[in-house]
Write a structure and sequence with these properties.
Length: 232
C-alpha cells in the first residue's frame, strides 16, 4: 500500500534568518527526495525571523508568507503539495502551528502577547493544531526545558536535527501524556541535508485541515524516525 510522506518542519531564506535556501528550492529538493509535500514553518516574529520589525503588522505578515507563497508557486506544475504553518517561540520552547492562514494572522496581532494556554485556546478554537517542536533539545541558546502538555495537541517526537537521546525523551513524553507524535526534519538548507524525518500517511493530504484532523485523531499516520538522506 502506498504511503504519502510529508515534511512538517522546514524553514526558508525568505523569512527565517537561519535558513539558507528558498521556498522554491525546497520544493525541487523534496520532490527529488520522493516526498509528496512539505509544510513551510518559518520562525515567527518572536523567533529567529528576518522580517523587518519596523513594518506595520499587515506588512510583516505579508512578508512572513513569502517563503510559503514562493514554494506554492514553484509546486504549481508538479504533483506536489505545499502547506502553510509557522514556528512560534516563547522562552526557547517552540511550537509548530498549523491550520491558520495569512488572512487570519493579519487580524490577530494579539497573538504576540498570549500565554501558552491562551495561544492553544485561540488556535484550537480556530480548528488549528499546536505541536511542541523538539521539546527536549539542549542548546546554548535554550535556557531551560519548558513543557506544556495541556497546551498542545501533539509533540514533535522525531526531529532530524536532534540527537537520539533528545528524540527518545520526546517519544516517552508523548506516550506519558497520551499525545500524538509527529516527525520533522527542521531543514534550513536543502543543499546540505544529512538526516530526514517527516510523517507518512495512509492517504494523500488535500488540505492542511486533512493534516490537522489526522494528527488530532492519532490515526492513519506514522512519524518517521530520522535517517540518512535516502529516499523513504
Amino acid at each position: 500500500m502506498k504511503r504519502y510522506i510529508y515534511e512538517t518542519h522546514l524553514h526558508t531564506s525568505e523569512v527565517s534568518a537561519c535558513a539558507i535556501t528558498s521556498g522554491a528550492e525546497s520544493v525541487k529538493a523534496y520532490k527529488k527526495l520522493g516526498y509528496d509535500g512539505i509544510f513551510i514553518t518559518d520562525h515567527f516574529f518572536n523567533g529567529n525571523c528576518a522580517i523587518n520589525k519596523n513594518l506595520s503588522w499587515k506588512d510583516k505578515i505579508e512578508a512572513f508568507c513569502l517563503g510559503y507563497e514562493n514554494a506554492k508557486a514553484a509546486a504549481e506544475s508538479l504533483d506536489f503539495s505545499v502547506f502553510f504553518g509557522l514556528e512560534f517561540n516563547f522562552s526557547g520552547d517552540e511550537y509548530l502551528i498549523y491550520g491558520v492562514t495569512k488572512e487570519w494572522l493579519i487580524v490577530h496581532p494579539e497573538i504576540m502577547e498570549l500565554s501558552h494556554a491562551e495561544l492553544f485556546n485561540l488556535i484550537d478554537n480556530e480548528g488549528g493544531l499546536v505541536v511542541q517542536a523538539h521539546p527536549f533539545r539542549e542548546r546554548s541558546y535554550i535556557k531551560s526545558i519548558n513543557l506544556h502538555p495541556k497546551d498542545v495537541h501533539a509533540v514533535e517526537v522525531y526531529n532530524a536535527a536532534n540527537n537520539k537521546e533528545e528524540n527518545n525523551k520526546a517519544v516517552e513524553y508523548a506516550a506519558k501524556h497520551n499525545l500524538p507524535g509527529i516527525g520533522g526534519s527542521d531543514i534550513h538548507d536543502v543543499t546540505n541535508i544529512h538526516y530526514l524525518s517527516g510523517v507518512a500517511f495512509d492517504e494523500k493530504l488535500e488540505t492542511v485541515q486533512d493534516f490537522v484532523a489526522k494528527i488530532k485523531s492519532n490515526k492513519g499516520f506514522v512519524p518517521l524516525p530520522p535517517k540518512l538522506n535516502l529516499k523513504y
